[in-house]
Amino acid sequence: MGLYLQHTVVLCFSLLWMPLPSTSIPCTIEVMQDMMSRLLKTEQTESGCEGVWHSLQAHLQQTHQNLTECYQREDSFKGLETPHSTCQPLLDEMEKQASKKLEMINADMQRKLLYEQVEIAKTRKEIGKLQKQLTSIQDEFKGFYQRLLLLHIHAGDRRRALHYYHVLVSLKEPNLLQTIVKFVYTSVRHENHRLENLLALVKYLPTKHEQMTLYRLIQPEIMNRTTQHFSFLAIIASLDMNKFVKEKEETEYKKLRDALFNLVMKRWQFQMLGGNYQDIVAFAKKYPGYFQKIGEQVALIYPKYWFQFSYSQYVTYPNLLPLPKQRLQAFRVIMRQIKQRNKTHFSYYLAKLAKQVDICEKYIKQHYDELKTKDQLIKLKQQFSDFDKTNGYEYYLKNVDKLTKTKPPIPANALRPKARDGRTGRR
């Protein structure tokens, strides 16, 4: 619009010099056609100068009309308020309303927040109560599971006892192993069979640490009771502890094992000297697997006592054992001792031994499959000829009465420990 205004002003001055209907002298202005075309901002047309002139007049009239309307609009706005004066109050009002609305929303949110905080506090309180109840219930269940565990130990139900043991371990029951050992010894009447059941359970505990810990707890309890440390219970515990002992290393754990084993073995060996085989045979019947591990050691007589006890009674011991392999094992131990200690006067010992081997062979044929022990019997019989190549097993068996009429002389260097009444032992 500014460009048009500039040309319009120029043209308005020019129009003042245009010929008007009066008595004045007409004035002619020479204007180039291309100049008028530039005023119109159009290219030259074929209508020539006259056409351009008419177009310029029309353009000037339109421009004049536009300017007139513009001035009129400007005059009409002078009496009105400025945009700032009309919009600011409205803006202020809207800000006030927005502020009030925000305050209302904030107050409402504060109320809701307070309500939620109160509800959260109530919920937390309820959760605390529930947690206490849950803890109480868990404690009750722990106590229930613990009673079941101990009852199944008492009853010897290893499978169920292990189940409840695992349950209590998963519930992180503290001092569980100590509780078990304490239960075993709460009753003097039942402590032996409870310990026996517990020993059957220990080896199935999930970790080496648990097993070793329980053996450490059991060992001093056994040692404090003569009814246990002189019994097969001590042997079972010590044999089970073997898997955690390295024989070449002197450890505290090995000392615990040895203390158990040596006490009962010493007692059993003295029982063997006195011809009392009841405890040993009972152990062999009830725990043949454990007995197989110590059978040779049990049947072995200390050299210093070999000539001081009743060999006639001792040689009957193998046939008191329940299983053929146990009997043959004991016979082999006796044969080995005769070879070591009776290299000269051996007929007496071999004749008594041959008689018992014959009893064993008949027992096996009657109650067991003799083929399973045939090779062992043959090897045992063959050893009878190791003393005198001319006489074998059959010779000693046929001449038992003849060969056992006279007892062989005792070697001069043989020690003869006296009994309490001053008498010497008998063969």
How would you explain this protein's 3D organization?
- The chain is mainly α.
- The protein has a domain at 292-427.
- It is 69% helix and 0% strand.
- It is elongated and about 195 Å long.
- Residues 1-20 and 419-427 have low confidence and may be disordered.
List the helices and strands and how they pair.
Blueprint: H1 2-15, H2 33-40, H3 48-77, H4 83-155, H5 158-170, H6 176-184, H7 191-202, H8 208-223, H9 226-229, H10 232-241, H11 252-273, H12 278-286, H13 288-299, H14 311-314, H15 324-341, H16 347-367, H17 374-382, H18 393-398, H19 400-403
Features:
single chain; 19 helices; signal; 0% strand; 427 residues
Range of helix content: 55-70%
Helix vs. strand class: mainly alpha
Residue ranges: pLDDT <50 for 5 or more in a row? Answer: 1-20, 419-427
Overall geometry? elongated
How far is the N terminus from the C terminus?
151 Å
Oligomer state equals single chain
Alpha-carbon Rg, integer: 62 Å
Number of strands: 0
Give the biggest sheet. Answer: none
